[in-house]
Write a structure and sequence with these properties.
This protein is mainly α. It has one domain. Helix content is about 80%, strand content about 0%. Helix 1 packs antiparallel against helix 6. The longest helix has about 60 residues. The N and C termini lie far apart (about 80 Å).
Length: about 180
């Protein structure tokens, strides 16, 4: 038995429509897969592109650690003829400025590395404030500096800057 021509035409239209729809869906799925693969490749190459920025950040943070290390800071900002209170403010102001200048570097380093830098800043400010609190009101800036350096020599563990520099150096070497 043969199908009437109208039924044959409608069957062919439906078959071609279904075939076209399936071909379109197949094409669309392949396109999405290709885009996903392209995104994965870009994400894999992104760490390579940011690696120089990360290494620069570690370099800058090691410099920051060196600049806010109390012995180096005292040598750099030492001024004669000022009071202990003025020297205390000058030292703390320098630490905060150095830290704030480099705060954006935290986006390129590990959370642990940034935490170590922040702890160093806080510890140094705490040491300055504690040593200053034990000095008499008429003490000079030189007295404060000498007392801080003596305290660091008596308690080498208070010199956290070497530990932080080692942590940053270790993290940077992992990137190379």
């Amino acid at each position: 038995m043969s199908l009437p021509t109208d039924q044959l035409i409608w069957s062919l239209v439906i078959a071609f429509t279904l075939g076209g729809a399936l071909a379109y869906l197949f094409w669309k799925q392949r396109k999405e897969v290709k885009q996903a693969l392209k995104q994965q490749e870009q994400q894999k190459s992104a760490p390579v592109a940011t690696q120089p920025l990360q290494l620069q950040a570690y370099e800058r943070l090691i410099l920051l650690v060196d600049r806010i290390a109390l012995p180096n800071l005292i040598n750099r900002v030492n001024q004669s003829g000022i009071s202990a209170r003025e020297m205390q403010q000058l030292l703390i102001q320098n630490i905060r400025q150095e830290y704030e200048y480099n705060v954006t570097q935290q986006i390129y380093v590990t959370a642990e590395s940034w935490e170590a830098v922040r702890n160093l800043k806080d510890q140094n400010i705490l040491i300055i404030n504690q040593v200053a609190s034990f000095l008499p009101a008429e003490a000079s800036g030189q007295d404060l500096n000498r007392s801080i350096l003596e305290m660091l020599m008596q308690s080498p563990k208070a010199s956290l800057h070497n530990v932080v520099a080692d942590v940053l150096s270790y993290e940077a070497k992992k990137l190379m």
